Amino acid sequence: MAVRDITLGQYFPGESCIHRLDPRVKIVCTFVYLISLFVVKSFSAFLLCILFLGTVIALSKIPFKFISKGLKPVIFLIILTMVINLFFVSTGDVLAKLGPITITKDGIYRALFMGLRLVLLIFGSSLMTLTTKPIELTDGMEKLLSPLAKIGLPAHELAMMMTIALRFIPTLLDETDKIMKAQTARGADFENGSIKEKAKALIPLLVPLFVSAFRIAGDLAMAMEARCYHGGSGRTRMHQMKLGKGDAVAIAVTVIYLALVILSRQLPLL
Amino acid sequence: MASDPMIQLKDVRFAYEQGEDDTPQAAEFAIDGVSFNIEKGSFVAIVGSNGSGKSTLAKHMNALLLPTSGEVLVDDLNTVTESQTQPWEIRKRVGMVFQNPDNQLVSSVVEDDVAFGPENIGIEPSEIRRRVDESLQMVGMYEHRKKGPHLLSGGQKQRIAIAGVIAMDPECVVFDEPTAMLDPKGRREIMSIIRKLHSQGRTVVLITHFMEEAAEADRIIIMEHGKVHADGTPAQIFSRDDLGVLALPFAVKMAKRLRQSGIDVPADIVTDEQLADFLCSKEQG
């Protein structure tokens, strides 16, 4: 039963004005925000980004704890980036010297700058996945990419694949659980032994899992055909995405924000 | 009975694996010379043991499989010629519910899954909304419309799958062993929905190996080794003594015993309800 408890993606259910935004608007605004982080040249301009992000977080009513969870898997990457910048930037006033490694004022500045940028990057993108259901994200992506279908980008097919993948994560987890139990009953040991032994123990799990994944795929393809699926052409959608007042406000705010960030390059306020 | 056929099978043969040029041997045919009609508005059960070709036959009824020889006509459309251009014209008319409830749901939201079929045939969005709500209400799953299928029981998932088929508004629904993977409660729920569909005037084809379920149909076809072994009303079928491994429904066995002990039970009593009604009226009379 344990495997059933996993949440799909990391959606945090809510009814805030951020949750209710059109997924297309959220994707575009997040994208703009991510780009803005690379436009920024100074710490003072980062204040703008923090202000923007902070407002959105406050509006979304998601506890900060959940958003900071997104940092966990990449914390090592952030520290590594900071350390490399700290040790290998050799311009500016030297503060300390240890063998071939020098720590300079510029190095500290760069390390903090890069670290902050990465943290803001992660917060921004997890905010989008926290406030948007995976299925809405997929639909939004399909709609946004659909103009590119004319030049051969399979927008509908990509979205369909995402939808099916999301749908079958719990099914395949159940399947894994079942196979694990079946193999354990036959004496397989998944918990003890060295890393090499553990890896070897996975073979009797992975082979049946792949076989059953193919069987499921075959069944599903037949069921989809039986329900008249024939690709994206001539297909209608039940959910029609409509841009509302809130979406207009979100776009306006994001545009103003981007303008301010670009302006901050020209006018060093601090 | 009015002879307005929904599905016509004419000497259908089908082999799963075909050699390059040599015609398959008779033993390799999964379906071997099957001909019958299914009338509009009827409720036909197709029964047979494993490997009798009943599921293969079902897949011919909406052009998922095409006959190796012979022909299948759905509402007078030939499945072979229609498949080359627009197989969905046939599948729009004949919907299909499969055995495994898990492997036929497409979306991780119940109502989106029900909308999948109507979306594929290009129905207006507002009309899809109406049909989705209506069919979810019909199978009694409306309050679960926002949930993920992985949170539902097998019987509930199967009801969603049925709703997805009803939302396409087919004239005929083929059920391919819809209760095989369900518990008794789920099985009862599905059977009551099947009865409801039939009472709405839709043609129902039920593939099953439960004789109790087949007894509710108005016609039973028994398949054996790819051929039609018997074809008739439940009363006719259950009075035969060459049914082999297929177990008779409880009510029929009970009626036989009652007859042996001198109670005159009519031959057309084949379901538990009919038997109960008969016995109660007997007591009063």
Description:
The complex is a heterodimer of chains A (270) and B (285). By secondary structure, chain A is mainly α. Chain A contains 11 helices and 2 strands. Chain A has 2 domains: 11-132 and 240-270, no CATH class; 154-239, no CATH class. Chain A has helices spanning 17-20, 23-39, 43-60, 64-69, 75-88, 105-131, 134-145, 155-185, 195-201, 203-226, 245-266; strands at residues 94-98, 101-104. In chain A, helix 3 runs parallel beside helix 6 (105-131) and helix 8 (155-185) crosses helix 10. Chain B has 2 domains: 5-248, Rossmann fold, CATH 3.40.50.300; 249-285, no CATH class. Chain B has helices at 54-60, 79-85, 88-93, 110-120, 125-138, 154-166, 184-199, 211-214, 234-238, 250-260, 272-284; strands at residues 5-15, 29-39, 43-47, 69-74, 77-78, 94-97, 172-176, 203-208, 219-224, 227-232. In chain B, the strands form 2 sheets. In chain B, strands 6-7-8-3-9-10 form a 6-stranded mixed β-sheet, sandwiched between helices. In chain B, helix 6 (154-166) packs parallel to helix 7. The longest helix of chain B is centred in the last third of the chain and has 16 residues, at 184-199. Chain B is globular. At the A-B interface, helix 8 and helix 10 of A face helix 3, helix 4, helix 5 and helix 6 of B.
